[in-house]
Design a protein that fits this description.
Radius of gyration: 30 Å
Number of helices: 6
Order of helices and strands: HHHHHH
Largest sheet: none
Shape: elongated
Length: 134
């Protein structure tokens, strides 16, 4: 004979009928489960990435490394006005923007130093032209 304590430890019985999945395959929820990106034009601009030809022989090696490993968005969420994007996307956009501003600041400081030392007026072959005799 079973005691009341045995009933509390027993596994509940399975439901009599299995769960039914709606047969309507045209609904957006069912189609999203099968293929979340059915139409690329439906993807918000904040989720799209800049694409470049990584096989371009004229691409700078630094740009190649950045483009290969860091996804760069086509538009930032504050440019499009869509503030309803997930926090992960916001952090990603702000990080890329901060890196961009940092590079611009370093370039500005470098151009200031180059102008101050007179290196911005040099041509590629100025050392050759300066040492040539007439």
């Amino acid at each position: 004979m079973s005691s009341p304590s045995d009933k509390s430890n027993s596994i509940p019985a399975a439901p009599a009928a299995p769960l039914e999945i709606p047969a309507d395959t045209n609904s957006s929820t069912n189609s999203n489960l099968k293929n979340p990106i059915s139409n690329p034009e439906e993807i918000p601009l904040e989720y799209q990435l800049h694409t470049v030809d990584l096989n371009d022989p004229m691409m700078d090696p630094l740009e190649y490394a950045v483009r290969k490993y860091i996804p760069i968005p086509k538009a930032y969420f504050w440019e499009t006005g869509n503030l309803e994007v997930p926090t992960k996307i916001k952090v990603w956009h702000r990080t890329i923007s901060a890196l961009e501003k940092t590079v611009q600041g370093v370039e500005r400081a470098g151009s200031f130093v180059a102008r101050g030392t007179g290196m911005d007026g040099w041509s590629r072959y100025s050392y050759v032209l300066d040492t040539m005799t007439e």
